[in-house]
Amino acid sequence: MKYIKADVVLPEALLKEIQKYIHGELIYIPNPKGTRKKWGECSGSKLHLKQRNDAIRDSYSKGCSIDQLCEKFCLSFDSIKKIVYSSK
């Protein structure tokens, strides 16, 4: 989140109205409801984890053991188990 000067982006009338309630302070204006992006959508983390988990499930279905998958993907035994046995 970055700082933006209100007098640069807001119309003068709106700025004067806001100044009736608060002036000389920082104020946070949240995004409208329904416009918030879900976790990992901007950075690509969500897609990366989905691809990794799909690769883990595919390797397991082709005969790799959970121990082998732990070594290959640098994850714990329990993490691999959760991924392999999840219904996705």
UniProtKB/TrEMBL annotation:
The lineage of its organism: Bacteria, Bacillati, Bacillota, Clostridia, Eubacteriales. SUPFAM superfamilies: Homeodomain-like (SSF46689). PANTHER family: MU-LIKE PROPHAGE FLUMU PROTEIN C. NCBIfam families: CD3324_fam. This is Mor transcription activator family protein. InterPro entries: c-mor_Regulatory_Protein, Homeodomain-like_sf, YraL-like. It comes from Ruminiclostridium hungatei.
